[in-house]
């Protein structure tokens, strides 16, 4: 019979806890805020009882002839706080701990996002250097041949289904967007015009989101489309690359790729 490896189990639990710490802290924070509300509601009858007793004491004092400047029948807001604050100590402590958990979860997520952004930037730089070296070594024509082969593999792996093709209002050319993996029918001239218009717009506004490009060519926005984009200060012009391929039913498909892909930190490069 094997003895349980306590150290391994402990390390596994520790690793899992660290990995899911934002979710754990958020859950504790939410539960704490709910608990705080419940505790505050339960403390209110005790506080009202203390206020009622204070009113009774003051009424007796006034009946015994103590002047109003020393004992007022009406309890002021400051007096109410002095009388009742102890009732809400448990709720205040729970609320403070809950807020600390929520702030902690946000802080962990911020650090992780910063690390991911740094890793993404390093990977992007390495990829750009690699692409430039490939073009320099084998030439633009052979590099385009490789791009065409990659594009062919992508549409073979994700064939067009009639029910999934997006009609953007004009044009009958079947297009495939590499970034979003969507098929749509449009005009190549319209797509190129959107590219040129947005590149001109970037000269004034400095950056453009991916969803702005999709809006220009008539495609619906995607979830991360506002989080990634192009910035003119970092080789940020939209540089579309087209590849003409045949689908599995021998229909021509224009595959849209990006010579300069959108970045996550496109708003922070100025």
From TrEMBL:
Protein name: Uncharacterized protein
InterPro entries, per the entry: DUF6353
Pfam families per the UniProt record, alphabetical: DUF6353 (PF19880)
């Amino acid at each position: 019979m094997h003895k349980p490896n306590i150290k391994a189990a402990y390390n596994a639990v520790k690793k899992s806890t660290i990995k899911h710490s934002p979710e754990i802290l958020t859950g504790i924070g939410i539960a704490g805020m709910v608990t705080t509300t419940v505790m505050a509601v339960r403390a209110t009858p005790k506080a009202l009882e203390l206020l009622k007793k204070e009113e009774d004491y003051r009424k007796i004092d006034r009946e015994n002839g103590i002047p109003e400047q020393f004992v007022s029948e009406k309890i002021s807001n400051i007096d109410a706080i002095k009388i009742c604050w102890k009732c809400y100590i448990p709720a205040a402590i729970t609320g403070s701990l809950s807020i600390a958990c929520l702030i902690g979860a946000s802080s962990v997520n911020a650090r992780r996002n910063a690390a991911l952004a740094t890793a993404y930037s390093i990977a992007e730089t390495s990829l750009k250097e690699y692409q430039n070296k490939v073009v320099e070594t084998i030439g633009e024509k052979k590099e385009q041949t490789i791009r065409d082969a990659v594009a062919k593999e992508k549409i073979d792996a994700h064939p067009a289904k009639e029910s999934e093709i997006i009609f953007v209002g004009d044009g009958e050319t079947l297009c495939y967007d590499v970034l979003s993996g969507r098929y749509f029918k449009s005009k190549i001239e319209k797509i190129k015009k959107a590219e040129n218009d947005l590149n001109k717009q970037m000269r004034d506004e400095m950056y453009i989101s991916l969803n702005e490009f999709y809006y220009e060519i008539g495609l619906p926005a995607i979830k991360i489309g506002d989080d990634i984009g192009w910035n003119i200060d970092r080789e940020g012009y939209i540089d579309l690359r087209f590849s003409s391929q045949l689908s599995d039913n021998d229909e021509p498909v224009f595959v849209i790729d990006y010579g300069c892909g959108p970045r996550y930190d496109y708003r922070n490069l100025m």
